[in-house]
Design goal:
Among the domains are: 87 residues, Ribosomal Protein S5, domain 2; 34 residues, no CATH class. Helix content is 60%, strand content 16%. It has nine helices and six strands. A four-stranded mixed beta sheet has the order 1-2-4-3, with helices on one face. Strands 5-6 form a two-stranded antiparallel ribbon. A hairpin with a 3-residue loop joins β1 and β2. The radius of gyration is 36 Å and the shape is elongated.
Amino acid sequence: MVLGMTGFAERSFASPLVRVKIGIKTLNHRSFDWTCKGSPLGEVESRLRDLCRKKIRRGRVEVHLEIVSLNPRSWEFSLNEGLLEKILRSLDRVSRRTGRPLDISLDGLFRVPQLVEVNRKGLSRQEVRFLERCFSRTLEDVLRMRRREGTRTAAQVRTHLSRIRASVGRVEDRFKRQPALLRARLERRLRELDAGSSVPEEKLAGEASLLAQRYDLAEEIGRLKTHLDSLQGLLSPRRDGPAGKPLDFLSQELNREANTLASKSQDIRITKETLVIKNELESIRQHVQNIE
């Protein structure tokens, strides 16, 4: 089915070992683009990226993760005891020399550079599995938004396609009448040049045939219909895989055929219909930029 490229979800999870907050935002992008900020994950980030890549094939994915380990064993604590003793001796000397007591709070000690280091150990296997489940559930919320956006966008594109089909139908109907119109126009022109004298039927038929071949639009109309059918197929809910790039390509091909129609047409009504087609195609191209 057609998927959009914008979505957002944010969820919090907790287990006896870890507390997790996950935010995922997806935006338009020509390819898959991943960024992850927040708590350092190491090689675990690659596993989350792979999980995401299986569900999202195109678009920018911005992930923010906050992880708080609740298990004391998950933390490493180190105290630079030599530095602490040196600080306390210095404070003691100054206190004796000035006769004033000097105290330093625990909070103040923690602010001393390189005195205390508190680091979280790498995630355990159990914590990684929990994180992957949390990430998948948050990602599913994003995918629901992308599916809703894709459904709305596909409906809008189908509306524009219906209008284009109607215009192509009118062009085709007008084109079928074009040989007779060209013949009548040619006959009037030849009579004007021959000062009202009659024009031989053979000459008139030959000239009309040449003009009809020169301004033949059958191939362009046929290709327009083929591209419209292909584009309609890409919007099918049963279709699997990204549709944005193929849709954009087909809309460009349709625009090219519409330009050819406009340049070859000798009928103002056909020219006006090509302008309608081009306007609808521009709307389609804007919509497909939001399709995966």
